[in-house]
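Whiteboard transcription, Tuesday session. T.W. wrote the structure tokens on the left side:
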């Protein structure tokens, strides 16, 4: 029987076991290293969700590389444009750097599109995107991320850095919500 956990009155069952995740991350790291060795890439992790994925990626790298983290702060605009997203933690210049933006999960793609816009404004030499999970049935972006760990169905998942209201990030496997309430009510507002 699948392992189950509960958060906020919702039940989740194990969906992607820890070892499968770790194997995928190792293969991604090997591919990234093959592509970027000698380019001294700068990995920019989008907090909070990416911390585990980026940590595990880094444990496999032997090339010269750097890491930084950024956070997205969302607030409602007083103007008609609605939600404004501000990046916190991005350095002043990325001139001549090969940058890999690292996300935990790409859903609609709006978050990563915002990040990429801001990163491009800093004149990097090259920008790539690595995400552990992608929901292809929901993703609306024009370009596919350069590195995708696993494609997942349009359902709410927790674990391996992904949370529900701050909880569940410490689960080593990924769990899928099995209660019937809609995904939209669960989607996190903070990254
Ligand atoms: P997007 O902007 O691509 O629609 O959403 C990306 C962000 O939404 C992710 O960084 C993550 O914080 C959150 N998100 C999207 N899908 C899920 C999910 O299934 N589970 C959790 N825990 N967060 C999700």
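and on the right, the sequence the group agreed on:
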């Amino acid at each position: 029987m699948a392992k189950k956990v509960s958060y906020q009155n919702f039940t989740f069952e194990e969906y992607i076991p820890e070892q499968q995740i770790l194997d995928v991350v190792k293969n991604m790291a090997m591919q990234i290293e093959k592509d970027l060795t000698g380019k001294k890439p700068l990995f920019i992790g989008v907090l909070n969700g990416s911390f585990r994925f980026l940590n595990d990626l880094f444990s496999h790298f032997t090339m010269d590389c750097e890491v930084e983290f950024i956070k997205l702060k969302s607030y409602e605009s007083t103007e008609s444009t609605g939600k404004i997203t501000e990046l916190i933690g991005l350095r002043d210049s990325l001139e001549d750097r090969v940058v890999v933006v690292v996300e935990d999960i790409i859903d609609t793609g709006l978050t990563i599109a915002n990040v990429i816009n801001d990163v491009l404004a800093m004149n990097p030499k090259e920008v790539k995107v690595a995400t552990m999970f992608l929901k292809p049935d929901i993703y609306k972006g024009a370009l596919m991320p350069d590195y995708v760990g696993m494609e997942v169905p349009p359902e709410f998942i927790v674990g391996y850095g992904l949370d529900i209201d701050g909880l569940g990030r410490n689960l080593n496997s990924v769990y899928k919500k099995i209660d019937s309430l809609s995904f939209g009510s669960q989607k996190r507002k903070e990254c």
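Someone added at the bottom: The two ends are 32 Å apart (CA to CA).
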